[in-house]
Records
---
Amino acid sequence: MLRLGIDIDGTVTDPQTFLPYLNHSFKKSLTYQDLTQYDLTKIYNITDADFWSWMDEFEPIIYKEAPLALHAKEVLDEWKDTHQLMFISARRKHLIEITNQWFKDKDLFYHHIELIGSHDKLAAVKENNISIFFEDKHDNACMINEEHGIPVILFNTPYNQDPVPKGVIRVNDWREAKNWVQQWTEIKI
């Protein structure tokens, strides 16, 4: 049984989730393809203070309404009896009730949910003895792979297109992730 470390936002949720809220609030009409970097303050030309003020207001709404990523539920449902599903997110800890309710509303099974309040997931990966990690943030994927020597599945987005080390595997959706995990598991046996 593998212990799968899974990011939530942009990985289990659709990576375009924030876009309509940002465009509405900051009076822009950017497309998903315009999100060429993870730092939204640079894309929307706003200050960190403005961004975090906006997050304080909209984060709970966005997380409550976030749609699932393509094929996420299908694949995670297949894995729930054969692997440990360990969700490790940079979401701030005060959002745990909203997060738990979202999982319930989406009928999405989990063994563990951990909101660490920061993008530094290295300690959580180690503490949870993760076998494979699933991520959308480029530098997280690279750091987890390099620090812990585990494969990291990186879901392709416009904002994570920098080169990756060999142990970071790009996929376009959860079915591709499932196929990679299946092949990797067969090789390991």
---
Amino acid sequence: MARFFIDQSQISGDSVAITGADAHHLRDVLRLKPGDVITVLDGANREYCVRLDTVDSGHAEGSILSNCLRQTEPRALLTLAQCLPKGDKMELVLQKGTEIGYTAFIPVVSERSIVKLDADRAAKKGERWRKIVQSAAEQSGRARLPEVHSLHSWQQLCDRFTDFDLVLLPWEGEEAAGLKETLKAKNIGAGVGAGASNGTSILVIIGPEGGLAVSEVEKARSCGALTVSLGPRILRTETAGLACGVAVLYESGDFS
């Protein structure tokens, strides 16, 4: 069944309005028509079963048949700060990160980032990235739409550490602290029952292809980040955040 994220303002009583690109996709791509049933999500964990009443160019309306709360969101609120990688790797990170369960993404420009974006290109990239996240969220059955933040400098990222309960910085130079032992020391997942949220907000920071400069690591540490090892193998930038995310969510009880 086709799934669409909409703004809560598009729901009025027992009626739902679908506009813009979603209406185009509904009519011209999926070839849906009045009488067909779709799933609509309001971004606040509520899912609606909707029967289409009218399907026109750029606008469709439907009647709500039923609705329910969906428990699809991770128990820990996990944000990925990804230093810009080359090519289309960022799109892969966003797509798969959304499927895994990241709740937000922060694109970051670091000292060794090869990709540099001016304000105009960053805005265009941000628009495309949000579309990729929305598509992945709809496909994977997410009940909330992960947020894609604006492009951050390293300093801007460090300034946001106080927004999180825990900041993890996987780094190949860390030889003492492993990810698993760090999560256990912080009691991630302790006392969480099935289907419950532990409310813990965790930021995972992943460097670019060339790694992070030592000065950046030291800056992050001074602001409260914990450097951790992801094991004896070196992971690519587009792999590290996904692997770390799965490990954190597993430890928090999300895959039980």
---
Amino acid sequence: MLECRNLSFSYNGREEVLKNITLSFAPGRFYGIFGPNGSGKSTLLKLLTGELKSSSGNVSPQWDSPLIRARNIALVEQQIPSSLPLTVAETASLGRFPWEKKNAVCHEKVEQVLEELELSSLRERPFNALSGGEQQRVMLARALVQDTPVLCLDEPGSSLDIGFQHALCRILKKLAGQGKCVIMISHDLFSAPAYLDRMILLAQGTLAADDEPEKLRNSQLLREVFNLPSEKI
């Protein structure tokens, strides 16, 4: 179980980006975090993964070392590396580093993930020669190859076409069904909620809702947070 209790954070020591957030993330569940720009979604994810330290409150468990943390939680960041002088297979194999320091390009897990994400035909292609959507899929492959109990993703579908956005959500739903805890930041209020077990809504750094997607997807609260018209989403 990944938890945060009374979590607050400030970048400048004054204005709080997150305020008193309490959440629990269980194995075998697919969570979606939503909210307008500036609501604190990415900051929350960085606190959960240990990239940032909270101003107050706490996140548990606390990993004993960066290596132990890397064996328990993987992150797909929103920002794709601008230059990576590796092939697709070499980039994906970086996910094995917490487990084995040797070259893992031909590791069974690498081949399995490349196949699942439809990247096998690109395995020898330079990462820098790929399109933005392909690069995003390779970053997802690296995280899946890491094979951790917790998988965190910051807008993983932002560069993907609509077909692969749905394919991605199906893969993440399947991983949750296999016991992983999957936490995804998304702006996709149309299709993503259909795959989620839990929908978390942030507004101005506070927790506005933590509920079943069916209850929130067309709610008045969601429309108010996003300043949407009265029509259903």
